[in-house]
Amino acid sequence: QAHLVESGGGSVQPGGSMRLSCAASVFLISAYDMRWHRQAPGKEREMVAHIDSTGRRKNYTDSVRGRFIVSRDNRKNTVYLQMNNLQPEGTDMYYCYVPLYDYWGQGTQVTVSS
Predict the structure, then answer these.
(1) Structural contact between residues 56 and 4, judged by C-beta atoms closer than 8 angstroms
(2) DSSP character string of 53-107
(3) Structural contact between residues 79 and 95, judged by C-beta atoms closer than 8 angstroms
(4) How far apart are CA 82 and CA 110, in angstroms?
(5) Exposed e or buried b for every residue in 19-51, given b needs 16+ CB within 10 A?
(6) For residue 23, what pLDDT is reported?
(7) Per-residue pLDDT of the chain in tens (114 residues, 90 and over written 9)
(8) How far apart are CA 93 and CA 46, in angstroms?
(9) How far apart are CA 83 and CA 11, in angstroms?
(10) pLDDT of residue 67
């Protein structure tokens, strides 16, 4: 069973930055596309960012493009999400996801509030 552990969440003021990490164990992420999703209470989970296995191709949802950066370090078996200029609507649980196998992490809470 694959294991994905997100970290780096917490509270930040509007305009602040935060970096999330997703560390994988049991399997190597180097062969797989990876995604970050987020979900607010009562809302559907939405994709935030996608990165291919090489790290060369990245896609973002429109609301975060230009502010969030997805990256990966296959040597560390870890995927990152750098979030800049965070706004209150970015308050969500953020999840790491392996689409090919439908693996989800447990999520990390991000709260943007003054």
Answers:
(1) no
(2) TTS--EEE-TTTTTTEEEEEETTTTEEEEEE-S--GGG-EEEEEEETTTTEE---
(3) no
(4) 12
(5) ebbbbbeebebeebbbbbbbeeeeeeeeebbbb
(6) 96
(7) 668 999 999 999 999 999 999 999 888 899 999 999 999 989 999 999 999 999 999 999 999 999 999 999 999 999 999 999 999 999 999 999 999 999 999 999 999 999
(8) 11
(9) 13
(10) 97
Please name the residue that has the structure tokens 């917490």.
10
Q: Which of 11, 8, 33, 1 lies closest to 22 in space, CA to CA?
A: 8
- Report yes or no: 2 and 103 within 8 Å, Cβ to Cβ: yes
One-letter amino acid of 49? A
Q: What are phi and psi of 112, to 5 degrees?
A: -115, 110
pLDDT at 26: 84
